[in-house]
């Protein structure tokens, strides 16, 4: 029999995403972003993001239906990211999803955005193995997940205690005088520098801190070290290389992420690693993950970047998995949860 057609809606931050998935097949994926409107403020403005979702939701829905050559009457279920994220942004997407579910008389499924970042890989690389690790890294999250079933059994082994990886890059970008969001600029600069030039700290990687937080991350101390380093050079007038700072900082972030992730793979007997989230565009992370996964015999799955940044396909993919697992649908008064845990 034909699997149900699931419509996925994403609106947790600044991307409005609408996608259609049948089984593990992606039929349409439309994304609108309000990032350009936030850039001049140097960060996401929640009010601006909410309004942009309101404006983009219906046109994105129409574009997705047209692209899949289906109508609303063909939709069998609605999945929506109900957290974590900005409360105003979440409210727009879930309100739209509820209206559609009510109007069409189809079930509504509220799903977790972070899990969605891992789920989308199934649309690209096929069914998941029995167990795997997922590293979800972006401007908003840095989480390490142990997945035995993407719909029913996802455990968060660790997460960042302060800044997300992308957020740390954006802050270091600001310190280096680069435009917002700084992540891609720092990455580009890093490729011209020496990653071993400055021994920046690896957070939560030694002694008692490591024992207490084996799979958690911390990047704010690292960011402070970069700030101190730059202050000291500027005060003394001693010459230094901005590229070396970027490269050494990037190395510290990638090293901690990959080291802890592969240790978790070993501990949990997982031979597959899925990496998702917008930060998976980082070139040093990709390089180091590829190198160390190959050494460890771990299969590395990273979807193309358009499925790593926030999008509707990840929500439709997770919705499809949830329907497949036969989980109960969400009530129509489903609440959003900006701090949603797993
Ligand atoms: O997933 P995403 O598009 O948005 C959310 O945060 O949800 O992730 C964007 C984050 C930003 O912090 C951006 O600066 C960072 O990922 N980023 C990068 C790179 N590309 C994007 N950071 C470092 N290197 C990159 N190549
Ligand atoms: Zn995200």
From TrEMBL:
Q: What does this protein do?
A: Required for the formation of a threonylcarbamoyl group on adenosine at position 37 (t(6)A37) in tRNAs that read codons beginning with adenine. Is involved in the transfer of the threonylcarbamoyl moiety of threonylcarbamoyl-AMP (TC-AMP) to the N6 group of A37, together with TsaE and TsaB. TsaD likely plays a direct catalytic role in this reaction.
Its Enzyme Commission number?
A: 2.3.1.234
**What GO molecular function annotation could you give as one example from this UniProt entry?**
tRNA N(6)-L-threonylcarbamoyladenine synthase activity
Give me the reactions it catalyses: L-threonylcarbamoyladenylate + adenosine(37) in tRNA = N(6)-L-threonylcarbamoyladenosine(37) in tRNA + AMP + H(+)
Question: What is the species of this protein?
Answer: Miniimonas arenae
Q: Kindly list the cofactors needed.
A: Fe(2+)
Q: Which UniProt keywords apply?
A: Acyltransferase, Cytoplasm, Iron, Metal-binding, Transferase, tRNA processing
Alphabetized PROSITE patterns for the sequence: GLYCOPROTEASE
Question: Any note on cofactor binding?
Answer: Binds 1 Fe(2+) ion per subunit.
Task: Report domain Gcp-like positions.
Answer: 25-316
Q: What is this protein called?
A: tRNA N6-adenosine threonylcarbamoyltransferase
> Coiled-coil intervals in this record?
none
Which HAMAP family does the record associate with it? TsaD
> Where does this chain mainly localize?
cytoplasm
InterPro entries recorded for this chain? ATPase_NBD, Gcp-like_dom, KAE1/TsaD, Peptidase_M22_CS, TsaD
User: What cellular-component terms does GO give this entry?
Assistant: cytoplasm
The stretch of residues making up the signal peptide is none
Checking Pfam families in the record gives:
TsaD
